Amino acid sequence: PILYSYFRSSCSWRVRIALALKGISYDLVPVNLIKDGGQQFSAEFKALNPMQQVPALKIDGITLSQSLAIINYLEETHPNPRLLPQDPKKRAQVRMIADHIASGIQPLQNLSVLKQMGEKKMEWAQNCITSGFQALEQILQHTAGRYSVGDEVSMADLCLVPQVANAERFKVDMGPYPTITRINKALLELEAFKISHPSRQPDTPAELRA
Protein backbone atom coordinates (compact mmCIF):
# COMPACT_ATOMS: atom_id res chain seq x y z
CA PRO A 1 0.00 0.00 0.00
CA ILE A 2 0.99 3.63 -0.61
CA LEU A 3 -0.40 6.33 1.70
CA TYR A 4 -0.43 9.92 0.50
CA SER A 5 -0.35 11.90 3.71
CA TYR A 6 0.55 15.22 5.34
CA PHE A 7 2.09 15.02 8.82
CA ARG A 8 -0.36 17.51 10.35
CA SER A 9 -3.52 16.38 8.53
CA SER A 10 -5.90 14.95 11.12
CA CYS A 11 -7.66 12.88 8.44
CA SER A 12 -4.32 11.34 7.42
CA TRP A 13 -3.53 10.66 11.07
CA ARG A 14 -6.77 8.65 11.44
CA VAL A 15 -5.66 6.36 8.61
CA ARG A 16 -2.09 6.07 9.94
CA ILE A 17 -3.50 4.88 13.28
CA ALA A 18 -5.72 2.28 11.56
CA LEU A 19 -2.79 0.95 9.50
CA ALA A 20 -0.63 0.76 12.64
CA LEU A 21 -3.30 -0.99 14.71
CA LYS A 22 -3.89 -3.57 11.99
CA GLY A 23 -0.17 -4.11 11.40
CA ILE A 24 -0.29 -3.13 7.73
CA SER A 25 3.06 -1.87 6.45
CA TYR A 26 2.94 0.81 3.77
CA ASP A 27 5.03 3.34 1.87
CA LEU A 28 4.35 6.97 2.73
CA VAL A 29 4.33 9.71 0.10
CA PRO A 30 4.20 13.16 1.72
CA VAL A 31 1.90 15.76 0.17
CA ASN A 32 2.70 19.20 1.59
CA LEU A 33 -0.56 21.16 1.86
CA ILE A 34 1.25 24.51 2.24
CA LYS A 35 4.45 24.32 0.15
CA ASP A 36 4.35 25.29 -3.56
CA GLY A 37 0.88 26.75 -3.05
CA GLY A 38 -0.30 23.32 -1.89
CA GLN A 39 1.04 20.14 -3.53
CA GLN A 40 -2.50 18.66 -3.38
CA PHE A 41 -3.42 21.02 -6.22
CA SER A 42 -0.86 19.53 -8.63
CA ALA A 43 -2.19 17.84 -11.77
CA GLU A 44 -0.48 14.63 -10.69
CA PHE A 45 -2.27 14.51 -7.33
CA LYS A 46 -5.60 15.65 -8.79
CA ALA A 47 -5.47 12.58 -11.06
CA LEU A 48 -5.07 10.47 -7.92
CA ASN A 49 -7.74 12.24 -5.85
CA PRO A 50 -10.02 14.68 -7.72
CA MET A 51 -11.03 16.26 -4.35
CA GLN A 52 -7.37 17.34 -3.97
CA GLN A 53 -7.27 16.29 -0.33
CA VAL A 54 -5.24 13.90 1.79
CA PRO A 55 -5.27 11.10 2.68
CA ALA A 56 -5.36 8.88 -0.35
CA LEU A 57 -4.46 5.20 -0.15
CA LYS A 58 -3.42 2.98 -3.03
CA ILE A 59 -4.18 -0.59 -1.94
CA ASP A 60 -5.21 -3.86 -3.60
CA GLY A 61 -5.29 -2.29 -7.07
CA ILE A 62 -7.61 0.60 -6.13
CA THR A 63 -7.13 4.17 -4.89
CA LEU A 64 -9.33 5.29 -2.01
CA SER A 65 -9.82 8.75 -0.54
CA GLN A 66 -11.89 9.94 2.46
CA SER A 67 -10.49 8.68 5.76
CA LEU A 68 -13.60 6.88 7.03
CA ALA A 69 -14.08 5.07 3.72
CA ILE A 70 -10.44 3.96 3.88
CA ILE A 71 -10.78 2.80 7.50
CA ASN A 72 -13.98 0.89 6.66
CA TYR A 73 -12.17 -0.86 3.80
CA LEU A 74 -9.28 -1.80 6.09
CA GLU A 75 -11.81 -3.07 8.64
CA GLU A 76 -13.47 -5.31 6.05
CA THR A 77 -10.24 -6.66 4.56
CA HIS A 78 -8.20 -6.88 7.80
CA PRO A 79 -10.82 -7.55 10.49
CA ASN A 80 -8.36 -7.99 13.39
CA PRO A 81 -8.13 -6.13 15.63
CA ARG A 82 -11.61 -4.85 14.95
CA LEU A 83 -12.36 -1.14 14.97
CA LEU A 84 -16.13 -1.57 14.82
CA PRO A 85 -17.81 -3.46 17.70
CA GLN A 86 -19.85 -6.56 16.96
CA ASP A 87 -22.82 -5.28 18.96
CA PRO A 88 -25.05 -3.26 16.56
CA LYS A 89 -25.85 -0.56 19.15
CA LYS A 90 -22.20 0.00 20.03
CA ARG A 91 -21.26 -0.06 16.35
CA ALA A 92 -23.85 2.64 15.68
CA GLN A 93 -22.45 4.72 18.54
CA VAL A 94 -18.92 4.39 17.14
CA ARG A 95 -20.10 5.55 13.71
CA MET A 96 -22.10 8.39 15.27
CA ILE A 97 -19.05 9.73 17.15
CA ALA A 98 -16.77 9.28 14.11
CA ASP A 99 -19.27 11.17 11.93
CA HIS A 100 -19.76 13.83 14.58
CA ILE A 101 -16.04 14.62 14.33
CA ALA A 102 -15.39 13.85 10.66
CA SER A 103 -18.48 15.72 9.38
CA GLY A 104 -19.48 18.08 12.17
CA ILE A 105 -16.19 19.49 13.49
CA GLN A 106 -13.11 18.80 11.38
CA PRO A 107 -14.26 20.17 7.98
CA LEU A 108 -15.31 23.49 9.56
CA GLN A 109 -11.75 24.16 10.79
CA ASN A 110 -10.00 22.63 7.82
CA LEU A 111 -7.18 24.50 6.05
CA SER A 112 -9.33 25.35 3.01
CA VAL A 113 -12.03 26.91 5.22
CA LEU A 114 -9.57 28.79 7.45
CA LYS A 115 -8.00 30.38 4.36
CA GLN A 116 -11.38 32.02 3.68
CA MET A 117 -11.64 33.39 7.22
CA GLY A 118 -8.62 35.71 7.02
CA GLU A 119 -7.76 37.33 10.36
CA LYS A 120 -10.65 35.63 12.12
CA LYS A 121 -9.39 32.11 11.47
CA MET A 122 -8.26 31.40 15.06
CA GLU A 123 -11.56 32.61 16.53
CA TRP A 124 -13.52 30.66 13.89
CA ALA A 125 -11.61 27.42 14.55
CA GLN A 126 -12.04 27.78 18.31
CA ASN A 127 -15.80 28.34 17.96
CA CYS A 128 -16.26 25.35 15.64
CA ILE A 129 -14.31 23.01 17.90
CA THR A 130 -15.88 24.31 21.12
CA SER A 131 -19.46 23.85 19.92
CA GLY A 132 -18.59 20.38 18.63
CA PHE A 133 -16.79 19.37 21.82
CA GLN A 134 -19.69 20.54 24.01
CA ALA A 135 -21.89 17.99 22.24
CA LEU A 136 -19.18 15.32 22.08
CA GLU A 137 -18.49 15.55 25.83
CA GLN A 138 -22.17 14.87 26.55
CA ILE A 139 -22.29 11.93 24.14
CA LEU A 140 -19.12 10.35 25.55
CA GLN A 141 -20.43 10.56 29.11
CA HIS A 142 -23.02 7.97 27.98
CA THR A 143 -20.87 5.78 25.70
CA ALA A 144 -17.36 5.79 27.15
CA GLY A 145 -15.54 3.12 29.09
CA ARG A 146 -11.78 3.35 28.96
CA TYR A 147 -12.15 4.62 25.40
CA SER A 148 -14.89 6.41 23.40
CA VAL A 149 -17.26 3.44 23.27
CA GLY A 150 -16.66 0.89 26.00
CA ASP A 151 -13.18 -0.53 26.59
CA GLU A 152 -12.13 -1.39 23.02
CA VAL A 153 -10.31 1.00 20.68
CA SER A 154 -12.66 1.86 17.82
CA MET A 155 -12.98 4.06 14.75
CA ALA A 156 -14.38 6.76 17.07
CA ASP A 157 -11.04 6.92 18.88
CA LEU A 158 -9.16 7.24 15.58
CA CYS A 159 -11.15 10.43 14.97
CA LEU A 160 -11.00 11.73 18.55
CA VAL A 161 -7.23 11.92 19.08
CA PRO A 162 -6.38 13.96 15.94
CA GLN A 163 -9.28 16.32 16.69
CA VAL A 164 -8.02 16.95 20.23
CA ALA A 165 -4.59 17.72 18.75
CA ASN A 166 -6.28 20.29 16.47
CA ALA A 167 -8.06 21.77 19.49
CA GLU A 168 -4.76 22.14 21.33
CA ARG A 169 -3.17 23.70 18.26
CA PHE A 170 -5.95 26.29 18.11
CA LYS A 171 -5.59 26.92 21.88
CA VAL A 172 -9.05 25.65 22.82
CA ASP A 173 -9.52 25.47 26.61
CA MET A 174 -9.94 21.73 27.31
CA GLY A 175 -11.05 22.31 30.93
CA PRO A 176 -14.78 21.84 30.22
CA TYR A 177 -14.18 18.45 28.51
CA PRO A 178 -12.86 16.03 31.17
CA THR A 179 -14.18 12.90 29.41
CA ILE A 180 -12.60 13.84 26.07
CA THR A 181 -9.34 14.68 27.87
CA ARG A 182 -9.26 11.41 29.83
CA ILE A 183 -9.92 9.23 26.77
CA ASN A 184 -7.37 11.13 24.68
CA LYS A 185 -4.70 10.64 27.35
CA ALA A 186 -5.37 6.87 27.54
CA LEU A 187 -5.21 6.53 23.75
CA LEU A 188 -1.94 8.45 23.42
CA GLU A 189 -0.29 5.82 25.61
CA LEU A 190 -0.93 3.16 22.93
CA GLU A 191 1.92 2.37 20.52
CA ALA A 192 -0.21 2.72 17.35
CA PHE A 193 -1.16 6.26 18.34
CA LYS A 194 2.45 7.14 19.21
CA ILE A 195 4.08 5.96 15.97
CA SER A 196 1.39 7.59 13.81
CA HIS A 197 1.68 10.93 15.66
CA PRO A 198 2.35 14.07 13.57
CA SER A 199 5.59 14.65 15.47
CA ARG A 200 7.02 11.34 14.20
CA GLN A 201 6.37 11.39 10.45
CA PRO A 202 8.96 11.44 7.63
CA ASP A 203 7.68 14.88 6.53
CA THR A 204 7.56 16.42 10.03
CA PRO A 205 9.66 19.62 10.10
CA ALA A 206 12.70 19.35 12.39
CA GLU A 207 11.36 21.91 14.88
CA LEU A 208 8.15 19.90 15.41
CA ARG A 209 9.76 16.48 15.76
CA ALA A 210 9.43 14.49 18.98
From TrEMBL:
Keywords: Cytoplasm, Isomerase, Phenylalanine catabolism, Transferase, Tyrosine catabolism
Reaction equation(s) it catalyzes: 4-maleylacetoacetate = 4-fumarylacetoacetate; RX + glutathione = an S-substituted glutathione + a halide anion + H(+)
Alphabetical list of Pfam families matching this protein: GST_C_3, GST_N_2
Signal peptide stretch: none
Gene3D superfamilies the UniProt entry points to: 1.20.1050.10, Glutaredoxin
InterPro entries per the UniProt record, alphabetical: Glutathione-S-Trfase_C-like, Glutathione-S-Trfase_C_sf, Glutathione_S-Trfase, Glutathione_S-Trfase_N, GST_C, GST_Zeta, GST_Zeta_C, GST_Zeta_N
Subcellular location: Cytoplasm
Annotated EC: 2.5.1.18, 5.2.1.2
Annotated GST N-terminal domain residues: 1-82
Cofactor(s) demanded: glutathione
One BP annotation, GO: L-tyrosine catabolic process
Family: Belongs to the GST superfamily. Zeta family.
NCBIfam families, alphabetized: maiA
Protein name as annotated: Maleylacetoacetate isomerase
Taxonomic source organism: Emberiza fucata
Name of encoding gene: Gstz1
